[in-house]
């Protein structure tokens, strides 16, 4: 949706929808359907990611999270892992101008110490350079929600905390300071959470679509947004 006017006429997102998290599934199948290697699916997926991030920023979303590489994804063939890491590095190298234009602040969530040093350096540098921009863009890399919770517990133990509040845990997660996701969108037709934002998703609306991630359009995101507003969130109340 390159035409700005097309979303400017839409109702503005309000406080009910501050954060959308995406499980970007279906890259492999998208490539297979075209007789292409899986890595081509990830390349197409990386383009879709950039398009959707711009759209979310234009729509005034306060935060967006994408699941780019899970702690379980290390089980994939080395060639595929390397290709995903290369795409991430390429994004870190080339995205600064767009991040400035769309006022996006990048935060990587996950254990980045397992990544190659060049990637770690670029992550740290880009996080610093984009700090304070309007929309938070969390990119989950080497991320697993259970691991994140273990890490948070260790932080609290290290600080000598003995009485733990929900706020203590939220503040010890990688997403500290970011509102919890109001909606989690999973592409690719499966109905799973796959160890993603387990704590933060406590009250998130879940939205599943059969569309494969590389095919996801701004209109598909708009459909999810409209579905979100048609639901009634009661947070356990009536
Ligand atoms: C899941 O689809 C996708 C991934 C594990 C990788 C997602 C990575 C990208 C979209 C590129 C990331 C780049 C940036 C810049 C964030 P799958 O491979 O499991 O698909 P399948 O279920 O069809 O096999």
Under the CATH scheme, the architecture is 3-Layer(aba) Sandwich
> What is the N-to-C order of secondary-structure elements (H for helix, E for strand)?
HEHHEHHEHEHHEEH
Q: Could you please say which CATH topology applies here?
A: Undecaprenyl pyrophosphate synthetase
Radius of gyration: 18 Å
**Uncertain runs:** none
**How many E-type strands?**
6
Spatial order of strands in the largest sheet: 3-4-2-1-5-6
- How far apart, in Å, are the first and last alpha carbons? 38 Å
Cofactors, ions, other ligands: farnesyl diphosphate
CATH class type: Alpha Beta
For this structure, what is the CATH homologous superfamily?
Answer: Decaprenyl diphosphate synthase-like
Number of separate helices: 9
How would a crystallographer describe the biggest sheet? 6 strands, parallel
User: What level of helicity do the residues show?
Assistant: 40-55%
Alpha-beta classification = alpha/beta
Report the sheet-strand fraction.
15-25%
What integer is the average pLDDT?
95
Condensed summary:
The protein is of the alpha/beta class. The protein has nine helices and six strands, in the order H-E-H-H-E-H-H-E-H-E-H-H-E-E-H. It has a single domain, classed as Decaprenyl diphosphate synthase-like (Undecaprenyl pyrophosphate synthetase).
